[in-house]
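Record 1 of the preview.
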Amino acid sequence: MDARVSEGPRLAGWSPPPAKPVFRLGRIHDPQNPMPQIIQAAYEQPVVRQASPVGAFYVVGDPEGVKRVFLDNVANYPKTDMERRLFGAIFGNGLLSSEGDTWRSHRRTMAPPFAPLSVASYAPGMVRDVADFQTCWDQAPADEPVDVARDMTRLTLQIISRAVFSTDGAELGEVMERSIAGAMDATRIGLADFVPVLSGLRMAAREKRIAEVFAEFDGVVARLTTEREHSPGGADLLSRLIAARDAETGGGMTAQEVRDQVVTIFVAGHETTAAAMAWIWYLLAQHPLAEARLHAELDAVLGGRAPAAEDLPNLGYTRMVIEEAMRLYPPAPGTSTRIALQADEICGVKIPKGAMICVAPWVTHRHRLYWDRPEAFEPERFSKENAAGRSRFAYIPFGAGPRVCIGASLAMTEMLIVLATLAQRYRLALAPGHEVELFHQVTVRPKGGLPMIVSRR
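->
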């Protein structure tokens, strides 16, 4: 089936919008939609006011509206108190949770470890980790499925562990896997979390639980940080964070601040990359012509050898596959909920003071006013010609504005290396009879895993 004409899963009950939009409530019951609380009108109009059990909020899907919230008037739209506490419990004072001058200082301090030359230096280690991983798929029984979602989690955890901690990666990977699982369980929010008396008690209990699940990880990071401080000059990310200095003030980060940034890198980087890779394999299995074009590029550019950092700019279609997969299945389908400090106007809609604002990549990436055939998998959307003139706020898998993900280049490098290495060697097919259903808990994953049959090319 042609990748340009075949369609992916559609939102249940969708039909083209009427001439005069109808703003209506109602869930979209669809196992392929991780955000069933968002009403259908949000996919059809720039800004939609939506009622909910916890109060009305505004869903902003228009790229210019996203730009208004994330860039032009960003100071007017901070995170909610609940989200700040929740992020703070997991990430401490890392980039995802810090604000104001602290965030700006940390962002400047962390820029060099994520600069292009630094990112390129991690590529050889990534290649080695993927080569080691190939043994798992080489040994997989011919007719028995493997859980590709689980395998991508293990692989990306090993890659980020080695990049951050060098030879200590294996030890930290296991510890961090347990911590992430515990933290994700603790993030579950229910209606009781919005009841004034109960919300504080529930949040305090949640903060205590998160501190407990990270205790083992914190102890290991503290030990490794002390070791690096006594033996400076290492090439891993931990050593670079310890040595990094704010370009304006000359100050570095404390041991606690380094720990918070490491947790942020692990949770935000590893989880999202693993999820993205799982969906890439799923989509390629559904679109054989796109898979064939990917294989042709890899054969022409690499000819069976492992990719190097200098090969990545030549893997144009490989990058397009990744970008389109993250459009259809953004690893974090919903961003943080914001509060309007002052009354504002977004795309002609009056926003009252105190209103809750939702910007969701899942909605913006599938918006019917801004994407042609938004549910179709078409990597060609991201060719230079087709992407020319597209608002950079129409595609936000890594966020947008001043708080755009600092690790976006590192994540893209990792995904290019993983896909280029493994797709040269294997083809994957969804296990017969398996129905894919989405599970949304910060990231969006295949519910119950992603069983696929691995075969050698």
